[in-house]
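Dear Dr. H.,

I hope your travels went smoothly. While you were away I took the liberty of generating a structure for the chain from your last submission, since the lab meeting agenda had it listed for discussion. I wanted you to have the full record in hand beforehand rather than looking at slides cold. The sequence, exactly as received, is reproduced here:
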Amino acid sequence: MDESLSRTVAPMEQHNRLLMQQIEGRLRSGFSAALDSGACYVIRNQGTGVLSVLASSTIEDDHEVVHGPGSFAQCIGFVNSSVVTRMAESDGWKPAPAPAAAATTADKEQTA
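The corresponding predicted structure, in token form, is as follows:
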């Protein structure tokens, strides 16, 4: 008789096995969803504030969605612009006025 079958599984080992099965299931779900060209979402980790792009089929109730649905390219663009903007603002940078606002300002200067 196989010795590994005859021994009792310790509670911690059983817990670890269940946890690994859950992780493997989520990885498989994520990989299969990534291969589909469906909609994506940007989520924010509530503990760290880190942004991640997830396929719509992997979104769960505990995820804080901050952008989407959209294509992967749109979502990664949102993440990149958020990070770049945040870094620039931390250095004291202020965004330029929108083109329409800039044109209105130029018109006011010419009439003055």
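Two observations you may find useful: The chain has a mean pLDDT of 79. Strands lie at 40-44, 51-55, 64-70.

With kind regards,
E. W.
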